[in-house]
Write a structure and sequence with these properties.
Blueprint lengths: L1 H33 L5 H6 L8 H15 L25 H17 L11 H8 L4
């Protein structure tokens, strides 16, 4: 009986990981098919009048991209963090939890209160944590 449970658990994990990989590949292919890859200067153009540090903007942008294993040039400010290549049926995805942990640490370093629940897009994340110039 224990052997059956262990085998079932292993199969479940393999299927779960496979579905996640398939979903992520579809997400990345959709981005590549529908979006032009942006350079750093094109990314910064979204924040031309924001008075935010360019270095800080690019650091945060790349932090999100790295966390979700998405090439940074394919991201856009309106991209929802909860939809970046993760399974839609998973509420507490580890990558989203990792980004939340990073955000909590940033909040401590900046020593300012930030409503983490209000951060849903890449733009929200950057505006919450980017340093001012």
């Amino acid at each position: 009986m224990i052997t059956f449970l262990i085998i079932s658990l292993i199969l479940y994990i393999i299927v779960y990981k496979s579905i996640g990989l398939i979903h992520k590949n579809k997400y990345l292919n959709k981005l590549k098919d529908t979006r032009k890859y942006l350079s750093d200067q094109e990314i910064l153009a979204f924040y031309t009048n924001s008075k935010l540090s360019e270095i800080s903007i690019l650091e945060l942008w790349n932090e999100v991209a790295t966390n979700f294993d998405v090439p940074p040039g394919y991201l856009r400010p309106e991209d929802r963090l909860a939809e970046m290549g993760i399974l839609q049926i998973v509420v507490d995805d580890p990558k989203l939890e990792d980004l939340t942990d990073i955000a909590i640490e940033r909040e401590k370093v900046l020593n300012k209160p930030i409503d983490l629940e209000s951060i849903s897009t890449l733009d929200d994340y950057i505006k919450a944590f980017a340093l001012k110039t």
